[in-house]
Design brief:
single chain, mainly alpha, two-stranded antiparallel sheet, two-stranded antiparallel ribbon, 5 helices, elongated
Amino acid sequence: MSNQFVVPQFLDVETKIIGPITARQFIILLATILAEFVIYRIFLSIIPILLFGLPTLAIGVIFAFAKVNGQPFHYIALNMVQTFRRPRLRVWDKRISDAVLRASLKKDEQPEPPKPPVKPPIEGSRLSDMSLIVNTGGVYQPDKPLYGKG
């Protein structure tokens, strides 16, 4: 009897915790609301709140809900940061000569490992003699030749 196992499907779908909102989206929105509250408590005036609060809210909503090519926006932002940190111009600085390069590419020949010792095949065994004695009822004797005079 074979056991049947259930194979999980839809591994890339995040679990919804509050309606259509996933845990990742909830945490991002919670951090955004906390930042909005800090901006409100620092400035207590409508102009700075609009200048700093609305862009913070927009960035939080974009990070929580926006997807580009099926990937969450925070992956895209991380890839952009990594791309901008890398140098844009790549220059090949050839300082080693062709002879040194060829010498480094040449494979070192390693000696073959020693072959394991080979045992000679078994010519005859005491077991085969014993089985012949038992099968022949004691007529066969290993000291005497099977055929001819002995």
